[in-house]
Amino acid sequence: MKVAILHEGNSKKTNDNALIKLLLEDLNLDENRVEFFGFGPKSNFYKTDYIKYKNLKLGIEEESINKILFILDADKEENDNTYGGLEKTKLELEKVIAELGLADLSNIYVTCDPKTQDGYLESLILSSIPIKHKECIETFLECSEFKSKENHKSILNQIYKRAYPNVPFDLSHPNFDALKEKLHNLFNK
Amino acid sequence: MDEHLLKNIQIKDFKCFKNFKADGFKRVNLIGGKNNVGKTAFMEACYINTYPYESTNSSSMALSDIVFTRYNQVILQDLLLEKGNLFIAKEIEKKVIEFNKASLVSNIFDTLLKYKEGDLGLRDKEGLVKYFLGNNQITNDKLEESYGKIIELEKEKEIDELIRNIDSSIKSFRIINSQPKCNFIDNSTFVDIHELGDGLYKYISILLSLFICHDSYLFIDEIDNGIHYSNLDKLWEIILKVSREKNVQVFATTHSKECIESYARVSKKFEDEDMTYIKMSRLEDGTIKAGVRDYEMFQDTLDDEHEIR
Q1: Cβ atoms within 10 A of the Cβ of B8, count?
Q2: What is the ipTM of this complex?
Q3: Which of A11, A45, A68, B131 is deepest in the core (most CB within 10 A)?
């Protein structure tokens, strides 16, 4: 029996689930047991008739999938009144999960900076580096003309890679513990 | 145009099926799944179901046809005695036919006397021909009969052209002295196609059957058996193209990931959404589930690289 991880972006594009795959490896969890569902933009998680949900439900009916972990960005409340911020992201998603009848099998992890409780996967990664470096990068982004979220995300990725070329992510950082726990639970019977 | 298409089925107490329902079938349907989950049995039930209800004779002929393709008479008798009644309904909650055990057995044995080999094509009351191509090769007799109909339809050149899609060196296909033969563009001597490999023979069997089964049905067990993976796209191109032109509903089974991927690739290339992929699974409680994926679901599953077999 497999488990499903539903995440933003494309299931085949490495950036979108690279951290999850590294964490699985770090935790010694078998990646081959995971079916990744690349949901594209966050808004797709809130469409109950989305094609990925149809395939997910069929996989459950066929008894090939028995647990689900939703991983999506918190984003910022000021940018999105409906689904922005940690609480709203979770609350609205729980409604969707209940409507789909998947509550018993599902768990949610919202990626954000644990301190501010907003942002995205990159904010979580950034939260794991020394505060001085983090502030430096944030100041750079604020001063720059790169205003859009997507620009920020890719720039953050690049800066992170250049600043820490030998360690893609500091997986031992406590800020990853919550996600690690969710992954562990996903694999538990 | 496509009124005859089988869109759903309910199967009760037939082989591995106790109380089974599936719907959403389209013009072309590929069936996958592990061993012993009832892929061929499902297709057999669909095949029987394409026969008119009014005549249990006709339906039992269909049953004998497919059973004879796979089993010998003794097993057939045991199977029927063990199972007792057979119920099949074309549309869920619509018409259910109960076959009388004794008459069914008797009809089957009458039918068996008429046919000596498997892979039969039977003509029902409406005059439609439907073929069930078993895992074993279609016989030369059957191929000859099919080619006779191609000649009646004056489609020999079209068939030659389609065969060249698979092997561009072939000039033409003919039945000479009851033997299927091909000659070549650079050599006019006809050669027995058995000498050219199983793949070509299978391809020609499927091709001729598609033409013969116009406005009807074609069932192909283990479609990719004997076909080299590099020719799978060409095979699916022919099936999708000819089945649309000739209005044939196709059901086929496979175990091969390459065959499934080829089916997805070609249907995407042709933008042919009149297709499904049906994954058969045996659930923990022993029941069998048919997961019918339409075009969009099927493409999405493969895009995400999920296990589909």
Answers
A1: 16
A2: 0.87
A3: B131
